[in-house]
């Protein structure tokens, strides 16, 4: 069980390390403005609106209120282009573009380039960092031929703040986790082969006690299943009725059994029973039990019979003649 828990813990650490390394890769591989996807989409939408406003202002200043403004193209997450199908006042571009970006809460630094649509050559351009409000626009005042132009705005990556960045935190966290994994692996104990803890042989089941095969009474015994009687030194094979009657007496020693009870217990399976049958079979059993001086089937006048058993210690002199008479 401990090995299984240790393995699960180690695998969990590996998964955490993989996620952190993957996050660092994405963090460092990205270039330019670092923004979440949803924030980047919002930024691109605001740039789109600002550049379309700039185009509208430039065309309006040129007296053109009918030319359709084409869609802004996004080349990557920092670069945007807008195609102008007629010439415009380049000297007014910096102020109008700056105002439009501020209206849409865009404060990042950027570079502007104006390309010729047909040749793709750079015609004009400037950087917002180098733009002096009191000085003339770089490349301004030059004659601009009628034609098609592409205004490109490329935003610069945001400078890293002086305070520790999230990158440093992630790197530090990754280092701690990697160190922890190394410690866990270093302390990993080799898995010992499982030993067979079961006994080589199954414990022997204790044998169920054997049921007694003989009913003991006095110094005689009667077989439980077979109608065999051993009285003293003699062995007899009883008839069905003799065995049934003797079993009844042995089951109730020292008790008076009335004649009616004996008839029902021994002869109930016969249709007609003669009362003298009991006396005949009792006489037979008395003869068979003569070899055992401790037993006597005594007649109880007017009631029935009783099997009397006497122990030898009850007669210290060993004379049981009076009992068996």
Number of strands: 12
H/E order of the elements? HHEEHEEEHEEEEHEHHEEH
The unreliable regions are 160-165
Classification by helices and strands = alpha+beta
- What is the count of distinct domains? 3
Kindly describe this structure.
- This protein is an alpha+beta fold and 325 residues long.
- It folds into three domains: 7-27 and 165-184; 32-155, no CATH class; 214-324, Orthogonal Bundle (Arc Repressor Mutant, subunit A).
- The chain has eight helices and twelve strands.
- The chain has a five-stranded antiparallel β-sheet with strand order 1-2-5-3-4, with helices on one face. The protein has a four-stranded antiparallel β-sheet with strand order 6-7-8-9, covered by helices on one side.
- 14% of the residues are buried.
Key words describing this protein structure:
Arc Repressor Mutant, subunit A, rod-shaped, 325 residues, alpha+beta, five-stranded antiparallel sheet, single chain
Layout of helices and strands, plus pairs?
Elements: H1 2-29, H2 37-61, E1 73-74, E2 79-84, H3 93-103, E3 110-116, E4 122-127, E5 149-155, H4 166-186, E6 214-217, E7 220-223, E8 228-231, E9 234-237, H5 240-251, E10 256-258, H6 259-267, H7 276-288, E11 295-300, E12 304-309, H8 321-324
Antiparallel strand pairs: 1-2, 2-5, 3-4, 3-5, 6-7, 7-8, 8-9, 10-12, 11-12
């Amino acid at each position: 069980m401990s090995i299984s828990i240790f393995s699960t813990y180690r695998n969990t650490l590996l998964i955490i390390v993989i996620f952190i390394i993957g996050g660092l890769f994405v963090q460092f591989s990205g270039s330019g403005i670092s923004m979440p996807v949803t924030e980047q989409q919002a930024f691109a939408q605001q740039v789109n609106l600002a550049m379309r406003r700039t185009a509208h202002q430039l065309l309006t200043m040129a007296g053109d209120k009918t030319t359709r403004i084409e869609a802004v193209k996004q080349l990557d997450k920092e670069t945007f282009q807008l195609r102008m199908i007629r010439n415009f006042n380049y000297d007014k571009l910096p102020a109008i573009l700056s105002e439009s970006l501020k209206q849409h809460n865009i404060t990042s630094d950027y570079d502007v380039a104006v390309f010729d649509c047909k040749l793709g050559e750079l015609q004009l351009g400037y950087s917002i960092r180098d733009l002096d409000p009191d000085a003339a626009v770089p490349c301004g005042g030059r004659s601009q031929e009628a034609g098609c132009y592409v205004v490109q705005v490329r935003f610069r990556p945001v400078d890293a703040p002086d305070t520790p960045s999230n990158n440093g935190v992630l790197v530090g966290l990754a280092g701690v986790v990697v160190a922890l994994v190394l410690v866990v692996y270093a302390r990993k104990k080799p898995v010992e082969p499982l030993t067979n803890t079961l006994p080589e042989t199954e414990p022997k089941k204790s044998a169920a006690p054997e049921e007694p095969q003989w009913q003991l009474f006095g110094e005689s015994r009667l077989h439980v299943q077979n109608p065999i009687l051993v009285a003293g030194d003699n062995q007899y094979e009883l008839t069905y009725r003799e065995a049934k009657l003797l079993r009844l007496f042995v089951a109730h020693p020292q008790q008076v059994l009335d004649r009616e009870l004996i008839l029902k217990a021994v002869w109930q399976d016969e249709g007609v029973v003669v009362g003298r049958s009991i006396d005949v079979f009792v006489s037979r059993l008395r003869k068979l039990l003569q070899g055992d001086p401790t037993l006597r089937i005594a007649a109880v006048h007017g009631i029935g019979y009783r099997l009397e058993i006497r122990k030898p210690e009850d007669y210290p002199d060993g004379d049981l003649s009076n009992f068996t008479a």
